[in-house]
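User: Please run a holo structure prediction.
Assistant: Happy to. Please share the sequence and the ligand.
User: Here you go; the ligand is magnesium ion.
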Amino acid sequence: MKEIILLKSGEIALKGLNKSTFEQVLIKNCRRRLQSLGAFKFSYAQSTICVTPMEDGVDMDEALDRLQKVFGIASLSRACVVQKDYADIRRQAVAYLRDTLMDVRTFKVEAKRSDKSFPMNSPELCRELGGDLLQAFPHLKVDVHNPDVIVTAEIRDFAAYVHAKRLPGAGGMPVSTSGRASLLISGGIDSPVAGYMMAKRGLEVVGIHFESPPYTSMRAKLKVMKLLQKVSLYAGRTILFVVPFTEMQEAIKDHCPEELFTVIMRRFMMRIAQRISYKQNCGALITGESLAQVASQTMPAIQCTDAVCDLPVFRPLIGMDKGEIVAVSRKIDTFETSIEPYEDCCTVFTPKHPRTRPKLEIIEEAERKFDFEPLIEKALENLEMITIDPEKPIY
Ligand code: ATP
Ligand code: MG
């Protein structure tokens, strides 16, 4: 019995002339994710990508699991390859679907026939196969409106398949078809979710993390690496830039009013992130901010932060409640890591009474009190660059 995986592309189907570019990127992304599992062949026809293992003993469960996290796929099914001959279809369907059908009470059969030379039409194929499955599994009943499983027989031009379980794909657009952006990632709950959400819209995501040793520990950095690795299961292989931020923070603390510390610090994060972005060909910055969550996430504070940015700033969580953000972080399995208790540089010098309505002129005046350019340059010179690989979990 030969098993394959069928992938239905999602929104790509809506694209016009550049559709094939999207499909090629999607296939490339799938190929990358499966590379370490063995050799696979990818073929594309009629909005379906067929993934065929080219060697025996390939871990198909793992392949399916990985493909479920690839953006651009609406749904996936594991299918059995059958001959274009009804006797073979019946025999293989009974054997291949046994475990699935033993577990359910109702089913229906759907047939798709693009090869019109196949002697039965779709309704005939449905009827025949439905009858034969009922005979083989007498506990089953047909339910055409709300079946527990839908058995599909597809007779295509080059091959034929039978499958029963359609799994939801990750949706979205293939990573990198929208370009590249940098994600300001802390060790918190929000920023990994923000990265996941923008990768879903087709962005390749590069991580930027600010650390302040000795106020922040090695464990805090490892935690961020771990979070980005989990995001990379969806977003693909990436890089994390770790920016030494201690001197900058100390300078801000020494020269600026305490209640403005957070906003000013965030402006410097954005300035530095933007310079890294230009070098890395990133067209936008991504943050995990959500309106009104904390003092630096009010409208006036965001205005002050954005005033130093030329690149667009994407804040996919801006309208989400904490509970909604947590639900996504559980889904992508970052939550448990995010709540590990390590200091973030933001929490190190948090003012007691941060200004929730900062004024841009006052902030700019405060920043003129010190010569920050050499500090920015020094931070950029001492960047650490870490490769994050979806296949290499960090413990
Ligand atoms: P998160 O849960 O992502 O830490 P938060 O609710 O704690 O977010 P803040 O600490 O105010 O909010 O940070 C807002 C955003 O600023 C974060 O979502 C992240 O994008 C960015 N950020 C904060 N700290 C860092 C850091 N140390 N390195 C990089 N980016 C950071
Ligand atoms: Mg935080």
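The first strand starts at residue 2 and ends at 9.
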